[in-house]
Amino acid sequence: MTDIDSLLMAYDEQMRGAPPHPPTGVTYEQDGPLLRVVGQFRGLVSAPRDIGARGAELDRLIARQRDHFAARGEAVEWKIRGHDQPADLTDRLLAAGFLPEEQETVLIGLAEEMSAPVTLPGGVAVRQVTADADMHRIAAMESAVWGQDWSWLGHDLIARVSAAPDEIAVMVAEADGEVVAAAWLVFRAGTEFAGLWGGSTLSAWRGRGIYRALVAARAELAVARGVRFLQVDASDDSAPILRRLGFRAVTTTTPYVWSPPQR
């Protein structure tokens, strides 16, 4: 495989920013070096590896993003990678009221190496879904996994499939008609990459190869589309599994989130 530095360079060049086709109701706004995504369950700020701004100029840029979403009464996430510049960016985000969420590891693997079929446990089947009802079933499963209301995810997946059906493939693992795991593959037109997202499994079904099967199913779709690399923002639970499959860590990613004050 390509060395880590080359993988990271390809990631920075091809995977920053947002997909080309926003869902209905979502808009992209450019503010200097930043891309602002508006209209999702919370706002998103995407930046290049080096923002370019420093000192007071950077503080003003950060404040503009916070204030833009404050005026909308919405939270906003600024996605930071471990190698981003300037080095004091996170300190300045903290000073502006942004708080870090859980750090994840950015992993990259070769799609063709991940596509070998996996034997599923008896009674479990993996299939691609497009129906609105299935997206709501996925959201209910995610709510059970995380102990939070993830109903927003059903609406988000529906909107993304509607806006650009060729850019996302949503997969479920089912047993006796119940969604026990789900994941999706996001293609990035004009790049060598596709992103693996989701991958949550109900606790009673973990450790049985379902997560690995969902990786393989999505990798097979990626290979069929000529995708070279698969990229994952992996939790501490998922990263060891993916490393064993051959994924390589290139950096970390941490969401810094500003939320409006509770009334």
Task: Give the SSE map.
Blueprint: H1 4-14, E1 27-31, E2 34-38, E3 43-46, H2 55-72, E4 76-81, H3 89-95, E5 99-100, E6 104-110, E7 124-129, H4 132-146, H5 151-163, E8 168-175, E9 178-187, E10 193-201, H6 210-224, E11 229-234, H7 239-245, E12 248-258
Parallel strand pairs: 3-4, 10-11
Antiparallel strand pairs: 1-2, 2-3, 4-12, 5-12, 6-11, 6-12, 7-8, 8-9, 9-10
| Number of domain modules | 2
Structural class: alpha+beta
Strand runs, count? 12
Regarding CATH, which class of the largest domain? Alpha Beta
- CATH fourth-tier homologous superfamily of the largest domain: Gcn5-related N-acetyltransferase (GNAT)
Number of helices: 7
Shape: globular
Rg calculated over all Cα atoms = 19 Å
CATH topology of the largest domain: Aminopeptidase
- Ends apart, CA distance between termini: 52 Å
Strand content: 25-35%
Tell me the CATH architecture of the largest domain: 3-Layer(aba) Sandwich
The portion of residues assigned to helices is 25-40%
What features would you describe in this structure?
The chain is of the alpha+beta class and 263 residues long. It folds into two domains: 4-104 and 254-258, no CATH class; 109-251, Aminopeptidase. Helix content is 33%, strand content 30%. The protein has seven helices and twelve strands. The protein has helices at 4-14, 55-72, 89-95, 132-146, 151-163, 210-224, 239-245; strands spanning 27-31, 34-38, 43-46, 76-81, 99-100, 104-110, 124-129, 168-175, 178-187, 193-201, 229-234, 248-258. Strands 1, 2, 3, 4, 5, 6, 7, 8, 9, 10, 11 and 12 form a twelve-stranded mixed sheet that branches. A hairpin with a 5-residue loop joins β9 (178-187) and β10. The longest helix has 18 residues, at 55-72. 31% of the residues are buried.
